[in-house]
Design brief:
The protein has about 140 residues and is α/β, with parallel strands linked by helices. Helices cover about 50% and strands about 15% of the residues. The protein has one domain. It is built from 6 helices and 4 strands. It has a 4-stranded parallel β-sheet with strand order 2-1-3-4, sandwiched between helices. The longest helix is centred in the C-terminal third of the chain and has 26 residues.
């Protein structure tokens, strides 16, 4: 399947998914949970490394996605800043430290999170996505 024939979700989700810390791990696991809950037709995870490496197929897909949501684990906002450097701006943004008050425990804390935290982050992402979808549908009226 090439970029032109791929079925695109309405929302593209970029997660920092830095497994080096608890909050980085949470972003990726919550993103997977969001896709499980909402379905791949509604939301799809986009590849941050492929965008930064200028992989043509991934770049072409992301250009065709209607809305971009970005989730970062901490105040460094790596995913948002890296995407901005590639010319991609988030339509909606979530930062675990700043928006949810989840403390980053630091390097090598990859597994120091709870399933309740994964669900909490997923809940916040679902709410953000649904608000973005609602805003888009309001603009279409």
């Amino acid at each position: 399947m090439d970029a032109k024939s791929a079925v695109l979700p309405g929302i593209g989700l970029f997660a920092c998914f830095s497994g080096a810390s608890n909050t980085g791990s949470l972003t990726g696991l919550a993103a997977l949970e969001v896709v499980r809950r909402l379905g791949k037709d509604r939301v799809g995870i986009c590849s941050l490394p492929a965008i930064l490496n200028q992989v043509p197929r991934q770049s072409a897909l992301v250009e065709r996605i209607g809305k971009i949501v970005v989730v970062d684990g901490c105040h460094n906002a790596c995913a948002r800043q890296l995407l901005a450097g590639a010319g991609i701006q988030a339509d909606a943004y979530l930062n675990l430290e700043e928006d949810l008050g989840i403390a980053k425990e630091g390097p090598f804390t990859s597994l120091e999170f709870t399933q309740q935290e994964v669900q909490r982050v997923a809940d916040a992402l679902v709410a953000l996505i649904e608000a973005e979808e609602w805003r888009v549908s309001e603009e279409d009226r």
